[in-house]
């Protein structure tokens, strides 16, 4: 309890009894699946020294499959993971719509959009906008089978299955990608960015939404990404270097969600 109190999960009241904090309330209610989804990842932190030396994560060696293939082979863990992505999409989406005007667009494409919860939050803030949620076919199928989470705007969402390593849907005047690029090395992230850039025009915008690397949460999250996926939290400085290789450029960076996340607004260089 004392260890968790040091990171503000619990606290001692004036009677010297342990009580929960607002952070604990969020973790145990709105983000309970998100917190649980990382439990299988912490054991790999013991391999960090070798990961840093070799540049290769040990997830497949430890679990027998690459990270996302392992999730697909474990229905219970996959369900927890998908629930986690919906939870964080709801929390982040509701915050981002307070500071960014999505009504300026007509057609939003959310790349790696999961079950559509983040898209739902964007569309609820912008009644005249429609959207495409693009993700792997099995994710899209699950979203279509159970759309209770997005029922309020379901008639304005189209789900498309595919692989963003190959291409993304065309026609969006806004493309969003949230907590996806941080899962990949620069080479793979660059390919995804190029695929998005291929579908953009001079008036399109790309919104990259990711955790910042230099926060208390971001610094730990960055280690988990490295040890599990060879991923990387790049932050604004990292994207300043990577985006031009895809023919893209940062327009502005908006700080959000308790200064833990950035919205990086990007346009295509023509």
UniProtKB/TrEMBL annotation:
The protein's GO terms of the molecular function aspect are: acetylserotonin O-methyltransferase activity
User: Does the UniProt entry include the keyword Lipid biosynthesis?
Assistant: no
Whether Flavoprotein counts among this entry's keywords is: no
Any single biological process term in GO? methylation
Q: Which SUPFAM superfamilies match?
A: S-adenosyl-L-methionine-dependent methyltransferases (SSF53335)
Enumerate the CDD domains for this protein. Answer: AdoMet_MTases
Q: What is its EC number?
A: 2.1.1.4
Give a Pfam family name.
Methyltransf_2
Occurrences of domain O-methyltransferase C-terminal (ranges): 47-248
Key words, A-Z = Methyltransferase, S-adenosyl-L-methionine, Transferase
Task: Describe its function.
Answer: Catalyzes the transfer of a methyl group onto N-acetylserotonin, producing melatonin (N-acetyl-5-methoxytryptamine).
Name the record gives this protein: Acetylserotonin O-methyltransferase
């Amino acid at each position: 309890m004392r260890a968790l109190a040091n990171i503000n999960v619990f606290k001692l009241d004036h009677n010297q009894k342990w009580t929960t904090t607002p952070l604990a309330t969020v973790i145990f209610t709105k983000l309970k699946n998100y917190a649980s989804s990382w439990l299988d990842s912490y054991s790999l932190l013991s391999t960090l020294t070798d990961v840093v030396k070799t540049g290769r994560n040990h997830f497949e060696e430890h679990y027998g499959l690459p990270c996302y293939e392992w999730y697909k082979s474990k229905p219970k863990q996959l369900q927890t993971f998908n629930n986690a992505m919906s939870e964080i999409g709801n929390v982040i989406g509701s915050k981002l719509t307070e500071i960014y005007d999505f009504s300026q667009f007509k057609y939003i494409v959310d790349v790696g959009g999961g079950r559509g919860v983040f898209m739902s939050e964007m569309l609820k803030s912008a009644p005249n906008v429609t959207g495409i949620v693009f993700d792997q076919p099995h994710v899209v199928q699950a979203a279509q089978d159970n759309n209770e989470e997005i029922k309020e705007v379901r008639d304005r969402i189209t789900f498309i299955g595919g692989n963003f390593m190959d291409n993304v849907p065309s026609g969006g005047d806004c493309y969003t990608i949230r907590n996806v690029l941080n899962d990949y090395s620069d080479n793979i992230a660059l390919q995804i960015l190029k695929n998005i850039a291929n579908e953009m025009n001079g008036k399109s915008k790309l919104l990259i939404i990711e955790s910042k690397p230099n926060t208390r949460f971001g610094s730990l999250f960055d280690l988990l990404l490295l040890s599990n996926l060879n991923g990387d939290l790049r932050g604004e400085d990292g994207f300043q270097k990577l985006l031009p290789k895809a023919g893209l450029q940062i327009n502005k960076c908006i700080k959000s969600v308790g200064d833990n996340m950035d919205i990086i607004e990007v346009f295509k260089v023509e």
